[in-house]
Amino acid sequence: MKKIITNGTIVTATDKFEADILIEDEKIVQIGYDLNSDGAEVIDATGMYVFPGGVDPHTHLDMPFNNTVTDDDFETGTIAAAYGGTTSIVDFCLSTPDKTLKEAVQTWHEKADDKAVIDYGFHLMINDANDAVLEELPQIIDSEGITSLKIFLAYKKEFQADDKTLFKTFVTAKESGALVMVHCENGDVIDYLVTKALAEGHTEPIYHALTRPPQAEGEATGRAIELAAMADSQLYVVHVTCAEAANKIAEARAKGYKVWGETCPQYLLLDQTDLEKPDFEGAKYVWSPPLREKWNQDVLWNALKAGQLQTLGSDQCSFNFNGKKQLGRNDFSKIPNGGPFIEDRFSVLYSEGVKKGRITLNQFVDIVSTQAAKLFGLFPQKGTIAVGSDADIVLFDPNKERVISAETHHMNVDYSALEGMKVVGEPISVLVRGEYVIKDKQFVGKQGSGKYLKRKKFNQGEVEIDTVPTTLS
Ligand SMILES: NC(=O)NCCC(=O)O
Ligand SMILES: [Zn+2]
Ligand SMILES: [Zn+2]
């Protein structure tokens, strides 16, 4: 079915202009004035921004973790994402030593294929780069279009990889055209500090932050950067939280290293004092790396503004407060790590970023959509509004005000870490490949309608990865 979006203001990472968009067969086929709209459904976007759908490069849906499993699966998680203006996610597929990589990816397809309501791809976690894994990896990258790999330097005895695995993964990624994503925290030091704190009788949620100091993140970030450089490979640092890490990334980029960084809404908006909330409420804010002292928020906003950090991931990893979070009632180290942000990622960046003058409107689109599409091999299919791109479109009312609350959100979790926050700007309707998934703030999509995204190899030369928008709004 043909559609025409008319009377709206189109905003991409580089431009802002008024024009109509003609959609046919899932794609944007024309952008301009006086388009032939015969037979097309007319969508009136008067007063709206017309944004490309958000691309969330960091989600954990239906993921076994910390002796339990996340509460949002590919159905609830992607419905919530769509409400929030996100039309593509890239989720982390876990691998385990007892299974082949192919089996691991198959497991993730089984979780997602019949459930997702928006498009999705997978990153593949590497825990031990042994001979079998290294032999299988290039085939998986090619056949599944999984062109990003994930290494955890923390979560000892669960996901943590050693430096040899990290280095070998960088080497293989360079040869195979994949981007290596790294969770940068020194897991051994953290393990020591956690054991010590518990032995001293400290069990409260705040000790989660106190045993994971920013230096542990800075050290691991620096280590990953140097190992990537030694392998002449490419590194994407996930969930950057603090000056110690952000500065390392900025220094590396100044030297011309192939390093990119992501932060998350939680680190821009919340701080370590949230973990001190009474009655175990601090557990709602337990994720890793932990929340930091408040002044780090400015460091992160400035890094986004300056293009030293490029993307915003939700790190969606939800656990109910009156459920799985209670596993750590008497021991902070047993609180499942993670929080719910997939739904609010897009609008809080607009409200706290654009509305408060911290980033420009074009930078908003770049950070929430375009840069992730470029880095993860989806651009220009995703991440922009252009002829030939998928018609993934958000009609956004920039003046609508709302208050974030678990009462009204769509994530399958009983609390919001942003409860009570006032937000200006709201996605009203959201289209994925030309079909409404959200229409006038109601979900109208279909379970399983999301398509699996086979992604292009890292930086094939077609896409200029480091584009910093120049158009100011
Ligand atoms: N961030 C977090 O605490 N949970 C998800 C796993 C990870 O990204 O480290
Ligand atoms: Zn992580
Ligand atoms: Zn994560």
Written account of the structure:
By secondary structure, this protein is α/β, with parallel strands linked by helices. The chain has a domain at 53-380: Metal-dependent hydrolases (TIM Barrel), CATH 3.20.20. Helix content is 29%, strand content 22%. The chain has twelve helices and 21 strands. Helix 3 runs parallel beside helix 4 (163-176) and helix 7 (214-230) packs parallel to helix 8 (243-254). The longest helix is centred in the middle third of the chain and has 17 residues, at 214-230. Mean pLDDT is 96; it is low at 467-473. One zinc ion is lined by residues 58, 60, 315, 317.
- Per CATH, what is the topology of one domain? TIM Barrel
How far apart the termini lie comes to 34 Å
Backbone structural class: alpha/beta
Runs in which pLDDT lies below 50 for 5 or more consecutive residues are 467-473
Write out the CATH superfamily name of one domain: Metal-dependent hydrolases
CATH class of one domain: Alpha Beta
Count of discrete alpha- or pi-helical segments spanning 4 or more residues: 12
Task: Tell me the Rg in angstroms.
Answer: 21 Å
How much β-strand is present in the residues? 15-25%
Strand order of the main beta sheet, please? 8-11-12-13-14-15-16-17
Helix content: 25-40%
Mean pLDDT: 96
How many distinct beta strands?
A: 21
> What hetero molecules are bound to the protein chains?
N-(aminocarbonyl)-beta-alanine, zinc ion
Estimate the global geometry from the Cα principal axes.
globular
> Largest sheet, if any?
8 strands, parallel
InterPro entries: Amidohydro-rel, Hydantoinase/dihydroPyrase, Metal-dep_hydrolase_composite, Metal_Hydrolase, Metallo-dep_Hydrolases_sf
EC number: 3.5.2.2
Enzyme class: hydrolase
Organism: Terrilactibacillus tamarindi
